[in-house]
Amino acid sequence: MVTITKNINSNTSSNKNTLDSAMLKVRIEHHLSHTLGDIIINNVIDKQCTETKKAYWHATSLALNEVITEKLNQSQLRQSQSACKSVNYLSLEYLMGRLLSNNLHNLDLYTITEKVLKSLGFELADLCEQGADLALGNGGLGRLAACFLDSLATLDYNAMGYGIHYQHGLFKQHFADGHQVETPDMWREFGSPWEICRPESTQLIPLYGHIEEVPQADGSTETKWTAGKTLKGVPYDIPIVGYNSSTVNALRLWQCRADSAFDWDKFNNGDYLMALEQQVHAEIVSKVLYPNDEHAAGQELRFIQQYFFCACSVRDIIKRYQAQYGALTPAQSEHFSSKVAIQLNDTHPTIAILELMRLLLDEFQFQWQDAWQLARKVFAYTNHTLLPEALEKWPVKLFERVLPRHLTILYRINEAFLNEEVNAMWPNNDNMRRALSIIDEGGEGNERKVRMAHLCVIASHKVNGVAQVHSDLVKSDLFPEFNQLWPKKLTNVTNGITPRRWLKACNPLLSALLDSEINADWAKELTQLSLLSNKADNADFQQQFMQIKHQNKVALTKEIKALTGITVSPDAIFDVQIKRLHEYKRQHLNLLHIIALYRRLLADPAMEMYPQVFIFGAKAAPGYKLAKDIIFAINKVADKINNDTRIHDKLKVVFLPNYRVSLAEKIIPAADVSEQISTAGKEASGTGNMKLALNGAVTIGTLDGANIEIAEEVGNDNIFICGLTVDEVKALDQNGYNPTDYYHNNEEIKACLDWLDSDYFTPGHAGALSPIKESLLAGGDPYKVLADFQSYSDAQNKLNVAYQDKKRWARMAILNTALMGKFNSDRSIEDYIANIWQLTPVSAN
Ligand code: 6GP
């Protein structure tokens, strides 16, 4: 048992900050001159130049970090003294965005920092822009992890996030003649002020090599693994600052290095490049985030990334346990699982299960049953998608080569599961064994594969989906047999978003209005916003609310101009679709409707229509051809429409490049309409839908994911629902869906698709946009774009009419903000705590 001698000074551990403006100014200047080296040249500071602003941003971040690190130390001490249970969130992705503004808001230091910087001649908002986004994720799954960390710290829970310290996060995107072009993200080219390297927690990770059965004295055999290679994991901690709480937790990101950086023998023999070989190979492991959203990458390097990060994290979890409670022995099993929860964010961290088992068996001398029981109490798994292409399966051969010992453990888990649990429920039933086995035998010509999701379900005590309809489908369609076997294991936790980043920090004007209206800390207790419902019809309040929306639209108008050169009017409807580009999210349904509107306007220039600007933001996975074709098509159609004077600016289309968290923070406060038009049953939850509605955008959407729960909250009068339901989509599939029928029977659909085939949008290049039409006709339209077109177009018409009734629209917008309380990620976290993790909060007060 480790004795803790340090004492907590209650003054510094509370959620009140003692930092005053004089002290802050001294610290900023100190960091400028001492840590960063003075950037004053010839006694003159050019406050407009980017380098100066970057230096001040850096110095301000470092000054703030002193407060944060102190709180981090205090939190860790308090958490360890209270011996509370902790959750370890394992995720290959964290889409953190920028940290300065958020940390200042969460520490309630934004206003004084703003004043101090003003006295130094800078605008804080302007300096915040200098920070790089921490884009260590692709989309929803990674951003959810970031929101959850914020909530865990805000609610004073003991939590550690674990992930990879990617050298390059998600690629940057720009457009060349309408095509997506990717360039590397260099978020920490010159270091990051937010991370603390922890060399003392370095881990050595074995892989490759061979196994042998070693006879034991009692006649049994033991499997011995001799690794062929060792990697070194060096952790970097990024502090996670709770909002108005006493807690700062950490996100621990592992960087991969070679065990020995340099081969002196080779160097001395003159082979300088080969001397570095090991280092180069090792560093590749944490070099870059795979840019695939909801698509399993299937490459050896990705597999090693997964293993590397799981192995580092599990060892670290055990090490921290031992530091606090002493040796981990089989007798401590119960105790361990009462102190440690491990959450698997999708199947990407599945190998953590095998690594924990391996450590317990091979290094801590646990018996199989003890180890397995412990693992099953500790792990829980969140499923984020039903898309078959995202469900990970790794070739058995790859496992065998890279992790031979883990594979033997996996086989044993599978054998016990099939022979005991499956056989007890379905005696001698080979079909059931085949369906539930962790190994997909592959059939003729196909290789054997490991179904990672099956291992997750078998080893976890809880499995959750991320919105009610998704969790229901997980039970009924994805894992029906598992649900029969363990009816209580599968459950739902509806996603949420942090109102700190997604309202308080990103929408200061609306936040100020809410502060004046709501007599509570609404950024913590978001359900308090429902009090606004009383004011939804109040003319003064409507005017204030919509005036703020207008100001935010003016700001976005400038951003659009700066980024694309396109002029849009803030008086038009701002209709926003921001999310990864994927066929199931149906940006091409939006596009098809835009083309239809354009056609209608050309046919009847006097057509009654309130001006509408369609705003897109989306990155396509670099290898996803059709997604890139859709981006190209939107850009080409936008070019044509935006420059066509015949339609008198009634229609504009903008594709903002390089969509990311910090750009979302600018778009969301300015949105009137939120596009959530995935094919029913395909979007597990969505979280952009929640962010947009919270900022007063009205949803046009399908009955999919969390849209259903949003509709329940705001009521059907305050949302535009369209499209097929989950059951209708299933019925279409069962009865044979024929998109060509829609093409032939709907004159508008036909005209729009044929138009895409011509060279109208790509002069001189007929056929350049044909892949979209092909995917919708010959390709079978797997996501039912044509089936939903009419319903979507009708809903758009209704929406356009509704917007012209200013009072009605203001009421809808206000009610959307007012009724989003359920979607606070604090509520999601409390659901995880109550149903899955069973933690108790520890605060200083
Ligand atoms: C996403 C889901 O598509 C989205 O609906 C959900 O809101 C989000 O996860 C958070 O739960 N899934 C992914 O991003 C993913 O990569 C494997 O799933």
UniProtKB/TrEMBL annotation:
InterPro entries: Glycg_phsphrylas, Glyco_trans_35, Pyridoxal_P_attach_site. The keyword Transferase applies. Its EC number is 2.4.1.1. PANTHER family: GLYCOGEN PHOSPHORYLASE, MALTODEXTRIN PHOSPHORYLASE. NCBIfam families: P_ylase (TIGR02093). Keywords: Carbohydrate metabolism, Glycosyltransferase, Pyridoxal phosphate, Transferase. It holds the Pfam family Phosphorylase. It comes from the Bacteria. It catalyses: [(1->4)-alpha-D-glucosyl](n) + phosphate = [(1->4)-alpha-D-glucosyl](n-1) + alpha-D-glucose 1-phosphate. This is Alpha-1,4 glucan phosphorylase. Belongs to the glycogen phosphorylase family. It comes from Thalassotalea profundi. PROSITE patterns: PHOSPHORYLASE (PS00102). Allosteric enzyme that catalyzes the rate-limiting step in glycogen catabolism, the phosphorolytic cleavage of glycogen to produce glucose-1-phosphate, and plays a central role in maintaining cellular and organismal glucose homeostasis.
